[in-house]
């Protein structure tokens, strides 16, 4: 146990700490191997346009039902929900100024790309779709979540 404590204490950031925790958890279950099909499915679902489940299942050599079950067992929710969560995370990263080239419309007091640009880049149909999904996942509009609420406007008044 002291070994893992030292490894975690020596981590040079959150990603390295997460990798150490993953290694620790894997060491607790001898013989455990990650499900490579699920890893590939998560990568495909993480792309802006995602992947259609029938094609993804065929590419992985699985039935749709088996793919759904394996993804749900591994991550805790369905491939469709996983795609929505990953798209939401991608949009937030982009809106906060990460993962981009810095170009485009600047959307509000908080800086960063405009919401229409973020929506298009992250794979939403349009800005309204992004706004609905942000409200669904975060419970507030994107401008509030990103600290871009115009001055003098009560965030609760627009809800």
Can you count the helices? 9
| Average pLDDT, all residues | 83
Name given to the CATH architecture of the domain at 82-145: Orthogonal Bundle
Helical content stands at 55-70%
Give Rg in angstroms.
Answer: 19 Å
Structural class: mainly alpha
CATH topology of the domain at 82-145: Arc Repressor Mutant, subunit A
Note poorly predicted spans: 100-109
Total number of strands: 0
Highest CATH level, the class of the domain at 82-145:
Mainly Alpha
End-to-end separation in angstroms reads: 49 Å
Region (Disordered): 94-114, 139-159
Protein name: HTH araC/xylS-type domain-containing protein
Organism: Kitasatospora putterlickiae
Biased composition (Gly residues): 105-114
Account of the protein in words:
The protein has 159 residues and is mainly α. Among the domains are: 32 residues, no CATH class; 64 residues, Orthogonal Bundle (Arc Repressor Mutant, subunit A), CATH 1.10.10. It is built from 9 helices and no strands. Helix 6 crosses helix 8. The protein is flat.
What is the structure about, briefly put?
By secondary structure, the chain is mainly alpha-helical. The chain has helices at residues 2-9, 14-27, 36-45, 53-60, 64-75, 79-95, 115-122, 127-138, 142-145. Among the domains are: 1-32, no CATH class; 82-145, Arc Repressor Mutant, subunit A (Orthogonal Bundle).
């Amino acid at each position: 146990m002291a070994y893992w404590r030292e490894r975690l204490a020596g981590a040079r950031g959150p990603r390295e700490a997460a990798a150490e925790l993953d290694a620790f958890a894997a060491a607790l279950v001898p013989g455990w191997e990650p499900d490579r099909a699920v890893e590939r499915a998560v990568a495909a679902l993480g792309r802006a346009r995602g992947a259609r489940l029938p094609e993804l299942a065929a590419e992985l050599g699985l039935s749709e039902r088996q793919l759904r079950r394996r993804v749900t067992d591994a991550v805790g929710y369905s491939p469709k929900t996983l795609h929505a969560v990953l798209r939401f995370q991608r949009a937030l990263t982009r809106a906060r100024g990460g993962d981009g080239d810095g170009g485009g419309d600047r959307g509000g007091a908080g800086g960063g790309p405009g919401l229409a640009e973020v929506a298009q880049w992250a794979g939403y149909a349009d800005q309204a779709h992004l706004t609905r999904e942000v409200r669904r996942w975060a419970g507030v509009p994107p401008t509030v979540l990103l600290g871009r609420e115009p001055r003098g406007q009560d965030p609760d008044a627009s809800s």
